[in-house]
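Researcher: Let's run the pair from yesterday's discussion. Sequence first, then tokens, for each.
Model: Starting with the first of the pair.
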Amino acid sequence: MEKPTMNIEKLQKKVVQCMRADCPSAEVCLRQIVRRKCSKSLETVQMVNPDAIVMEGDKCQFFKDSFGTIYGVGFEKYFDLLSYKEAKAAYAVLQAYFNSRTQYGRYRSGVLRISPERKAEIDALLQENGVSVPLECDAYEVDL
């Protein structure tokens, strides 16, 4: 799986930023990372009031993990990784899992994203049905 990248242009308008200079979690807190990489041309930002921050160990109540949740987008190329026998089994498993051809098509093309929980369920079903390669999506997106 390729590592998803952060789109700072989108995040700087979406994420409330933290202006606390002495934060011990600054290297892993999304609010601090976005603040440091924020464009200087951006005139206004949403920010956490530094006076309202209450530290709980090395994190505060506004801490936001910079990793986020990784969603899979599409799996059209997945079948290229499989033998004919495994591809046939994987197709049957995925059709049954998504309950309808329409839903299957939406997930396969990337219209709908696959959550980490769904991907784990699908991987277990694939393995139970003799498919040796876990589901590989065409792309991955981070949702914060």
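Model: Moving on to the second of the pair.
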Amino acid sequence: MTKWCFNYESGEYEDIDKDGYSWSRGEYVYNWDDSEYRREEEEEEERRRSQDEDDDD
């Protein structure tokens, strides 16, 4: 699944997957804003921690 992310190299928003592959360009990009993916990972980790704490009760 891709997200609409800003590519600093092109100066444009593109469909980029978690690994940095730009489906808009058809190539990997290396200087792009991956904050949406990082935020999603942090939220998932927080859910796991919360669930683990609930399971310990």
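Researcher: Give me one sentence on the second I can quote.
Model: DSSP finds one helix and four strands in the chain.
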